[in-house]
Structure formats: C-alpha cells, structure tokens
C-alpha cells in the first residue's frame, strides 16, 4: 500500500482531464502538521500558473474531479490553493486488514525490477578494518537490504583494495617472517596493524628492503608465481579478518561478493589504449591524462584525471574505469551505487564523465556516488583512540557489546547470564549501527556511547525495547502471529498509528531513491513512539475493554511489531523477545 502514490495517480488523472500537460507536478506530500490532514496536494498552484487561472478556483475544480469520497472524510482547500486530505478511519482500517494478513505486510513489490550494483565496504586489505570503514559497510548494507526487499536484483561488489604498492612491502616482510618459521595465522597476521607497521619500518629504515619491495610489486603485478603465492596468503588472512567484522556487524557480504581491485588487472591496459585511441586521454609529461573541461576550475583550467603513470603504472582511477565497464556493460546494471567518504567525490565525478565519453558506462546506467561524512569524537575531531591512533573496528564493536551489557543488566529482572549476553550483543551492535544510520548520510556526526546506548530518543535500544513491549503484550494476550480480527479505528491515537503503519512503503521508496537509510530510522522511531502513545491511551488488556475493541487493538499491535522487526531487519539490526 502506497497512499501517496494512490493520491498522486488520482491527481495526475484529474490534471489530464483539466488539460494539463504530462509531467505537471502534483506536489503531493505527507502533511507536515495535524491541522493539514494526512496528505497535502500542493500542485494546484503550479498548475494554475500553467493554465493562467486562479489557483483557488483550480483547486476547487481539482477537488471535484478527484472524488476522494471513498477514502477521505475531509478535503479542504487552504491558503492560495493547498488541498489538505484527511483520510477516513474505516478506509484506513480496511487497508490495515489487508496488510495484517499479507506476508509482505502490505508493502508491494517492484513491478519492474532493476539490476543494481552496489559497491560498499571495500576496505584496503593491507590494514585492519577501522572506524572509517563502518559507514560504507553498514549504510551500503542497509540500502542493499532495502533494494532486495523492494524486489530489485542486487549485485554486491566489495571493491577491496588488494593491489596497491604497499603489497610489495607486505609480502617481502611476510617472506622473511615465514623463513623465520613463524606461524602465519597466530603470529604474523594476528594483528594486521602491527604487521603493516613493522613492514613500513623496514621499508623506511632497512637497506635494500625498499628496493626488494618495489621489485616485488612489479613481479606480483606481472604474475610471478612466488610473489602471487605470498600475496594470496596475506589476502586470505586479511579477508578472513574482514569476514569476522561482517559477521559481528550482521552485514550480508560474503566471499562471493568480493571483486577486488586485482580482478580488473587484465582490463587496464586495453582500457588505457582505448582511451588514447579515442583521443580522450593524452600524454602529458610522460603520463596519460584525461583533461576534463566539465570540471574546470574558476580560471577555466580543466581537471586532470591521470589514468596511467609515467613508467606505465596504473592507478585507483584506471581500476574504477574498468569497474564501470564490467558493471555497466557486462553485468548490465541499470544503476550503480557506490558508498565512500565524501573526499572521493571528485574522483567519482571524473570516473563517470570519462567512462561515459569512452562508452564504458552505458547511457542507461545511472551512476550514483553516495558520499558520507566523517565520524567525529566528542571533541569534534575525527574519532581516534585516546593516544591518537585509528580505532580498530573489531575493538570498537567489542567495546559496544561490553557497554551494552552493563546497560542491559541494569534493566533486566529475570534473565539468565546467557540471555543477557545475547541481548547485549544485539543491543551493542544495534546501537552503533543505528546511531550511524540515523544521521543524515552526508553530514559528519559525533560518536557518543552515552547517546547511542540510551533508552530514550531515537536509538536502537529504544526501538528494541519498544519491540519487546509489544511482544510482551501479545504474549500476555496469548495471541499468535496469525491472529485475525476486524480492525476498527476510533481513537485519535489509533488513527495516527494506522496512518504511520501504512507509510512503510513510502519510506522504503524514498530510502532506495536517495540511498538514505536515515529516513527509515526516522520512520521506525516515529512508529515506535506512536505505538507507545497509542498503548497508553488505548487499553488492550485492562478489564472492561470490549472484546471487539481489544481484538482490533491487538491487530494493530501485531502489525506494529512486525513492521518494527521488518524495518530493523532492513537496517541489519536484530530484535529480541525480551530484555
Ligand atoms: N578501497 C577504497 C577505500 O578504502 C574504497 C573503494 C570504493 N570503491 C571504488 N570502486 N573505488 O577508500
């Protein structure tokens, strides 16, 4: 059910009858205030301008043509020509009855599924995953889950960095460690950070090591078996580390989704040759460069985009051009969505413009680089450890669970230690994820343990607790999930909850369109709050409540619980029966 879409279609049909051209914007929105009803049709003003008539008169005509008598009990014209629609309680009840027995909870499925490639997480394997990878990983995963729920064909692409020059240094160091007889797993790579640091120190200080490292990069990239073998050992261990983090984070990425930089190796030279051939890339001081007038600076100097270094080396940029070709031409993507931090915005603009010119990106493939802001510490500076180092993601998640356990224990009355541990895991991980996902993607945000673990406000614990409240009511009422009864909407709180329950699909559409999971976070928070308000005002289990009323309210509760769980699942956040 998508009320906004239904009203949009009706308005567009009326527009046609009024002789308005196709594409006239109906400007339909959810009402921002209760006085404005449930939905507003704001398109009459724009339409009147086009028809050169009086907007209020046109609004009047529109209302007559719309004929919303079956679903609205009030359609009011306000101000210069706003149309405020107040939905009918029994119409809402009817829609909810359908949603309550539907496996998809009344959310329709994409009638025209698209192939969407989503590039997310993509850590560099030379180092351990750190907080900087959190956002790409969880925002990407929430969007992927939403797209799949809507019915699109999603192809996850974990564009892991496994091919840079650091790998020469790392495998040269690994070779020596193995020669010393150290066990790979437990010693050499148990801590990727330490390993990287040790290799880097040798690179800087030890005579001959840097040369050997450079030599190993060249050998590796040209397919030398010995270097490849060392490299593979390193990569496998590093991937295993990432997989541990994915599992802890409840992220859906698997090994099958890994399409690392190295996978594009054989495509790079042909692509560079093609760009030269097409006269898109030109030689400049020994390097091959694409000069992009589209991204020229204020003085009119084109933006340089280097695709091959002096000496023949390829770059991050070259690989991204190859990735465009693979995703658009070979996989046939209708849309490519890439999540990285905002500092890479220029890079992806350069990639897109170049790839389109060269035909590496089909005209009908939409290319969305979705940037995100930085996670800040409470001091307002990029989040660091107390000593100023990068915070390892695995350690951050462990701390989250420990902190959550303290919070859960405080509230728990009759839970076993094992139950507390399990709940703490879900709350801790959920808290970190929700705190991040609920922020506007493009802004920086402040990481605060206290705020994210609070039971008040828009937090995972608040939502998880709200869910357990509903479940506890349903347990006390002794009703099963497939309980069925007529829904009747009387109280204002029931009506508010009803409208919200029917807006899940509208929210989902918006999340997918803008790649903004924070909209779903807002929705779920509002849904949980409206449920709490409803529950306070509308008794369910109290003595004296009429059976029909009680059963109707139980139906609203069941649907609320299911939608909360479904919504949180799209964010990759787990729920529990009790806490
Ligand atoms: N590995 C890169 C980084 O850590 C992110 C890769 C994003 N995807 C891409 N196609 N470039 O910054």
Structural account:
With 579 residues, this protein is of the alpha/beta class. Among the domains are: 3-87, Gyrase A, domain 2 (2-Layer Sandwich), CATH 3.30.1360; 166-257, no CATH class. It is built from 21 helices and 13 strands. A 4-stranded antiparallel β-sheet has the order 1-2-4-3. Helix 2 packs across helix 3 and helix 12 packs across helix 13 (345-358). The radius of gyration is 28 Å and the shape is globular. The protein binds arginine. It is found in: Cytoplasm. A motif ('HIGH' region) lies at residues 123-133.
SSE blueprint and pairings:
Elements lengths: L2 H15 L10 E3 L8 E3 L1 H9 L3 H12 L5 E7 L3 E6 L1 H12 L14 E5 L14 H17 L2 E5 L8 H14 L4 H5 L3 H14 L3 H13 L3 H25 L15 H13 L4 E3 L2 E6 L10 E6 L7 H15 L4 E7 L3 H14 L7 E7 L2 E2 L16 H19 L5 H21 L7 E2 L2 H4 L7 H18 L14 H10 L2 H11 L3 H20 L9 H24 L9
Parallel strand pairs: 5-6, 5-10, 10-11, 12-13
Antiparallel strand pairs: 1-2, 2-4, 3-4, 7-8, 8-9
Helix pairs in contact: 2-3, 4-18, 4-21, 5-19, 6-8, 6-9, 6-10, 9-10, 11-12, 12-13, 14-15, 17-20, 17-21, 18-20, 18-21, 19-20, 20-21
Bound molecules: arginine.
The site of arginine has 10 residues, from helix 12 and strand 10.
């Amino acid at each position: 059910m998508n009320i906004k879409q239904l009203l949009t279609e009706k308005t567009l049909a009326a527009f046609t009858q009024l002789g308005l051209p196709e594409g006239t914007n109906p400007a339909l929105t959810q009402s921002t205030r209760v006085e404005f009803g449930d939905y507003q049709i704001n398109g009459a003003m724009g339409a009147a301008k086009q028809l050169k008539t009086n907007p209020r008169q046109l609004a009047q005509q529109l209302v007559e043509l719309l004929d919303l008598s079956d679903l609205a009990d009030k359609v009011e014209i306000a101000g210069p020509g706003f149309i405020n629609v107040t939905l009918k309680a029994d119409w809402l009840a009817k829609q909810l009855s359908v949603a309550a027995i539907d496996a998809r909870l009344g959310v329709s499925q994409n009638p025209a599924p698209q192939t969407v490639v989503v590039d997310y997480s993509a850590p560099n394997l030379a180092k351990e995953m750190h907080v900087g990878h959190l956002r790409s990983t969880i925002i990407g995963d929430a969007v992927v889950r939403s797209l799949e729920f809507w019915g699109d064909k999603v192809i996850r692409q974990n564009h892991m960095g496994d091919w840079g020059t650091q790998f020469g240094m790392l495998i040269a160091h690994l070779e020596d460690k193995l020669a010393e007889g150290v066990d790979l797993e437990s010693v050499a790579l148990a801590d990727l950070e330490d390993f990287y640091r040790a290799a880097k120190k040798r690179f800087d200080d030890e005579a001959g090591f840097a040369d050997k490292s450079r030599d190993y990069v060249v050998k590796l990239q040209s397919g030398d078996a010995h270097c490849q073998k060392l490299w593979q050992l390193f990569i496998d261990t590093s991937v295993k580390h990432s997989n541990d983090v994915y599992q802890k984070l409840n992220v859906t990425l698997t090994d099958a989704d890994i399409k690392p930089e190295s996978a594009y190796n054989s495509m790079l030279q042909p692509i560079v040759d093609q760009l030269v051939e097409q006269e898109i890339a030109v030689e400049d001081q020994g390097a091959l460069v694409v000069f992009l007038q589209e991204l020229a600076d204020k003085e009119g100097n084109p933006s340089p985009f280097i695709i091959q270094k002096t000496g023949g080396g390829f770059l991050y940029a070259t690989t991204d051009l190859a990735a465009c070709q693979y995703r658009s031409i070979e996989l046939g993507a209708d849309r490519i969505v890439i999540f990285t931090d905002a500092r890479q915005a220029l890079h992806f603009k350069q990639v897109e413009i170049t790839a389109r010119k060269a035909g590496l990106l089909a005209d009908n493939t939409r290319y969305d680089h979705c940037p995100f802001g930085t996670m800040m510490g409470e001091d307002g500076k990029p989040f660091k450890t107390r000593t100023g180092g990068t915070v390892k993601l695995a350690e951050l998640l462990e701390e989250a669970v420990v902190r959550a356990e303290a919070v859960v224990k405080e509230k728990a009355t009759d839970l076993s230690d094992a139950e507390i541990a399990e709940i703490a895991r879900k709350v801790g991980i959920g808290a970190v994820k929700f705190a991040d996902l609920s922020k506007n993607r493009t802004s920086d945000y402040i990481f605060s343990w206290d705020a994210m673990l609070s039971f008040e406000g828009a937090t995972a614990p608040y939502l998880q607790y709200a869910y357990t409240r509903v479940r506890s009511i349903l347990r006390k009422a002794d009703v099963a999930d497939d309980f069925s009864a007529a829904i009747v909407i009387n109280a204002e709180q029931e009506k508010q909850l009803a409208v919200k329950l029917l807006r899940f699909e509208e929210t989902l559409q918006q999340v997918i369109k803008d790649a903004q999971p924070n909209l779903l976070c807002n929705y779920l928070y509002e849904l949980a709050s409206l449920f709490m308000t409803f529950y306070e005002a509308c008794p369910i289990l109290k003595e004296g409540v009429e059976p029909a009323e009680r059963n109707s309210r139980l139906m609203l509760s069941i649907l609320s619980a299911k939608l909360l769980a479904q919504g949180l699942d799209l964010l990759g956040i787990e729920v529990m029966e009790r806490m």
